Automatic annotation (TrEMBL):
Reactions catalysed, as given in the entry: uridine + phosphate = alpha-D-ribose 1-phosphate + uracil
Any one GO molecular function term: purine-nucleoside phosphorylase activity
Chain segments annotated as coiled-coil in the UniProt record: none
This protein's name: Uridine phosphorylase
High-level lineage: Bacteria, Pseudomonadati, Bacteroidota, Bacteroidia, Marinilabiliales
InterPro entries found in the cross-reference section: Nucleoside_phosphorylase_d, Nucleoside_phosphorylase_sf
GO annotation, biological process: purine nucleoside catabolic process
Enzyme Commission code: 2.4.2.3
Segments forming domain Nucleoside phosphorylase: 28-275
Length: 289
């Protein structure tokens, strides 16, 4: 039995941060960083079962072309992903009344739709990237046992050697996306990629305002890194933890991003919302196809 100090349930039976109940979770769960993106996605639903908000976590479940879909905003960062993915898993795989882990597990299809900064000069702003692998600069997965069983350790070592990884930085971890969700979403208009999830938007992605960074050459080394057929394509801030926790817990996970900036050519598009609208429609149609 899981103690109430470890799994906190609110008085109304909902889970601590998300304020959701087990029956409210669809098999397809879309995760987005920006709370306003939840409304944008829900605008495509033919009916909406509920909309709930606590802190930065806005959730709604509805139907798109006969497919039941839950959308949740995670806010920014892998620390929030620790909350969202663990609570989602508890909602479907732990009996919240008896506090026992269920014998038969449910596997969710978790798809993150995000914005991102490109890392290769030939990847223009407004492109879509599907993350085949995530590289976590955030360190979250290193806290969990058995993380080595679901990580690409050879990729990690090659990456650390190539970048001459600075000793003060957290050990990076590398986890693959779900093959099942990749098959569902892959498309000629989407580029396959390898995505770094950084624990910050500024220094951890090589942005210098007033503070110098510990390894100013890191982005150049990232751009020139090759491993088999893989090259690193983009930076964002959540994918690694979604892939890592989902792999450990038995859920399918995939991230698709709109590039709104390019870290190498130093471009950025702050008016990206029409492109995000198109990406949302693209993902919904793939899920419901
Ligand atoms: O657009 P979202 O999904 O928030 O994703 C990206 O944008 C935020 C940073 O601006 C980070 O969350 C990053 O991962
Ligand atoms: O450069 C970018 C753009 C969006 N999100 C990020 O994390 N980085």
């Amino acid at each position: 039995m899981i103690k109430s100090s470890e799994l906190i349930i609110n008085k109304d039976g909902s889970i601590f941060h998300l304020h959701l109940k087990p029956e409210q979770i669809a098999d397809f769960v879309l995760l987005v960083g920006d709370p306003s993106r939840v409304k944008m996605i829900a605008a495509h639903f033919s009916d909406i079962e509920y909309s709930i908000q606590n802190r930065e976590f806005y959730s709604t479940t509805g139907t798109y072309k006969d497919t039941r879909i839950t959308v949740i905003s995670t806010g920014i960062g892998t620390d929030n992903i620790d909350i969202v993915v663990n609570e989602l898993d508890a909602l479907v795989n732990i009996d919240l009344e008896t506090r026992e882990v269920k014998e038969t597990k449910r596997s969710l299809n978790i798809i993150r739709i995000g914005t991102s900064g490109g890392m290769q000069k030939d990847l223009p702003v407004n492109s879509y990237v599907l993350s085949r692998k995530a590289i976590g600069f955030d360190g979250l997965l290193n806290f969990y046992a058995n993380r080595e069983a679901i990580s690409d350790l050879d990729f990690e070592q090659n990456f650390m050697n190539h970048t001459d990884w600075h000793p003060w930085l957290t050990k990076p971890y590398v986890v693959n996306s779900s093959d099942y969700l990749y098959e569902l979403l892959q498309d000629p208009q989407v580029k396959d990629g390898v995505t770094i999830s950084a624990p910050g938007f500024y220094g951890p992605q090589g942005r210098e305002l007033r503070l110098p960074i510990v390894d100013p050459d890191l982005n150049e080394k990232i751009e020139s890194f090759h491993y088999n057929d893989f090259q690193i394509t983009n930076y964002e801030m959540e994918c690694s933890a979604i892939y890592g926790l989902s792999a450990l817990l038995g859920h399918e996970a995939l991230t698709i991003c709109l590039l709104i900036a390019n870290r190498r050519s130093k471009e950025a598009n702050e008016n990206y919302h029409p492109h995000m609208e198109k990406l949302v429609k693209f993902v919904l149609d793939k899920i419901a196809s």
